[in-house]
Amino acid sequence: MADAAGRLLIEEGFEAITHRRVADAASVPQGSASYYFPSRAALVAASVRAAEGLRAASAETFSRSLEPGRRSSPEAAELVIRTLFAPRVDDRVVATRLDPMLTALRDPALRPLMAEHRPRLLGSVRRTLEASGYATVTDVDLVAHLVDASLLTAAATGEEQVIRRAAAVLARYLDAVG
Fold first, then answer.
1. pLDDT tens digits, residue range 148-169?
2. Is residue 99, in this structure, part of any structural domain at all?
3. In which residue ranges does the UniProt entry place its DNA-binding region annotation (predicted)?
4. What is the reported pTM?
5. Euclidean distance between the first and final Cα of the chain, in Å?
6. Rounded Cα distance, 145 and 150, in Å
7. 172 pLDDT band (50/70/90 cuts)?
8. DSSP type of residue 136
9. Which residues make Cβ contacts (< 8 Å) with residue 39, sequence separation at least 6?
10. CA distance linking residue 28 with residue 166, whole number of Å
């Protein structure tokens, strides 16, 4: 059930995390979700932990699958974004992925769950940069922050293609440092 909850969180955001929706997604009776997760807080915590674990594992799989070779900065930037938001990223990423992450970070009980998989995620970004010919970019944490800020800025200004905008910003950074 936790895996189903994590997938729901990744695909639809926090509004999808209800006992009924999780039970349906896991193909179990609704009472099972309420039994294993007696409160909404417990259900949300399990969802966040599972989503971040899935995200980190998917990022590792994706980054390890890349063939090494020098890529243009826009190509590398897009691959970094795909790594950061694996297993699935589209222009709804701010609503479905960043907003839940920000919501979780505001909750002291969820912060450690969010931080738990960050080293794995950043390791995957490092592998993506190296596979793309940008091994000289050493501050992968800064790269991740730049992507998040670019996505949020693009969404806040009404940009419809937030990934393209964030990739353009990251490409400028890669050109400057890589």
1. 999 999 989 998 899 999 999 9
2. yes
3. 18-37
4. 0.87
5. 43
6. 8
7. very high
8. T
9. none
10. 39
